[in-house]
Amino acid sequence: MTDIHDNPLDAPDADPSAIAAEAAADIARLTGVEKHDIALTLGSGWGKAAELIGETVATIPATEVTGFSKPALEGHVGTLRSIRTPGGKNVLVIGARTHYYEGHGVRRVVHSVRTAAATGAKVMVLTNGAGGIRETWKPGQPVLISDHLNLTADSPLEGATFVDLTDLYSKRLREIARSIDPSLDEGVYTQFRGPHYETPAEVQMAKAIGGHIVGMSTALEAIAAREAGMEILGFSLITNLAAGIQQTPLSHGEVIEAGKAAEPVISALLARVVEAL
Ligand code: 8IG
């Protein structure tokens, strides 16, 4: 059990993968599920998917698991859930994302991904709510992530760890997703540090260098998932058009509304994709 002031990941000489292995042992003990097949991080807008994926075997507060941070919002406990799909797969659902902008370091940001790998998961499904740069996209639309631009100036990898990031967001898995919904568009996810949204000039920069989606979470997690040997599928829910792309300023209320309206639709899509993986 850890809190924000006492986390084994914060020791400079800590071994993040050993701590992830401890966390995986905690999960096995607390859920009674020895091994998970797929892990799924639910970002804003995607929360309803868990109920549709299968039967919840166990729900545990993330604070009971080694290395997990207390949630950023007080009174809002992040949970880890073990769900069994109708097809018999064990899915670890991570509802406790730590964001880079919380300022507790990149080890804490990717701890859930490393833990998922240590539970046995071979596939990491990363979802988020994000801004859209393509004018044709509408708030409430889900898109596949095809690649990323990491503009955090940071990496979850430590030391001389030269990990290849070709086909980071698996083409094979994207094709499976498109077999469920052929209308799914895809784009390059651009991770900014946040927590502020971009200026219109920054959005134009992201566009000029090949970005289509702007967000604050997924790129660092995907790098850690690749290092851990997992296959990655990424989904963004476009909750707003990025700053300057639409005519009106960004409001948090608008973002929440678009997410709410889309939630049942994208959750059903995600549940079908997970069963097909
Ligand atoms: I929801 O417009 C959501 N998350 N960086 N920019 C960035 N992150 C986001 C945005 C956005 N919308």
List key phrases describing it.
277 residues, alpha/beta, five-stranded mixed beta barrel, 7 helices, 23% strand, binds 8-iodo-guanine
Give a quick account of the main beta sheet: strands, pairing sense, barrel closure: 5 strands, mixed, barrel
Helix content: 25-40%
- Taking strands numbered 1, 2, ... along the chain, how are they ordered across the largest sheet? 5-8-7-6-9
What's the shape? globular
Uncertain segments: none
Q: Helix and strand string, N-terminal first?
A: HEHEEEHEEHEHEHEH
Number of strands: 9
Q: How far is the first residue's CA from the last residue's CA?
A: 33 Å
What does the average pLDDT come to?
92
What fraction strand? 15-25%
Ligands: 8-iodo-guanine
- Going by helix content, strand content and strand pairing, the class is alpha/beta
Count of alpha and pi helical runs:
7
| Rg calculated over all Cα atoms | 18 Å
Put the structure in a nutshell.
The chain has 277 residues and is an alpha/beta fold.
Written account of the structure:
The protein is α/β, with parallel strands linked by helices. 32% of the residues lie in helices and 23% in strands. It has 7 helices and 9 strands, in the order αβαβββαββαβαβαβα. Strands 5-8-7-6-9 form a 5-stranded mixed β-barrel, surrounded by 4 helices. Helix 4 links the parallel strand 6 (141-150) and strand 7 (185-191). The longest helix is centred in the C-terminal third of the chain and has 25 residues, at 252-276. The two termini are 33 Å apart. The model has no long low-confidence stretch (mean pLDDT 92). The structure holds 8-iodo-guanine. Residues 44, 129-131, 192, 194, 197-198, 214-216, 239-240, 242, 255 line the site of 8-iodo-guanine (8IG).
